[in-house]
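Protocol step 4 of 6: structure prediction from sequence.
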Amino acid sequence: MYVAVIVEVICFVIALVCLVNDSSLAWRGMALFMLLTCITEITGLLMKMAHHHNQWVYNIFLVFEAGFTSLMFARLLSKYINSKPLILSGLAVWLLLYVYDVHQHSFFVFNDLTETVMSVVFVIYSFYYYFLLIKDDEYVSLAHNPSFWWVCGALFFYFGSTVSNLFYPFLNDAKIAGYNIINFIFTALIIIMYSCWSYAFICKKWLTTKSRA
């Protein structure tokens, strides 16, 4: 968990340096999202140490995660399609599930169903983006394409977390060196996603600087 926090803080710093002056609201918003991510993780750790209960913290964070990630997908997909109907439909489904989850078990229990469905939706968005990218006739240098790497990170994380959540009862019982294997899996997924995102932010900064030169 501490490794994940370190990776998130590094990603936030890179986002702040690379995106704070970006012309795109969605890309600039990623710096704010990373700040909220770091605050959430640190608050969650402190709440767990002090009260052994922090699930409500992550229920709050789900709102920002769904909002900022959807905004980013809307921005990336808008290059190829009118993305508003798709993104707004996804957010509407998410909101209904969020209210249902809270009604079922109160705000202080983590919204597992909402989180799982949100992950599935983001995986679908990711595959759809790659489908549109492949169909596009325009040449794209993937090695330096920030959109490609951002979606790559999102796909790895949300696909991996969806599979892990589906098999959570089995993975939670498996241990390595006394620790649940599920913790190692999510830490690895976090490292992969924020590494891809950090590289995407750097590419975005490089492309912006290049276009102004």
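Step 5 (inspection) to follow. The beta strands are 175-176, 179-180.
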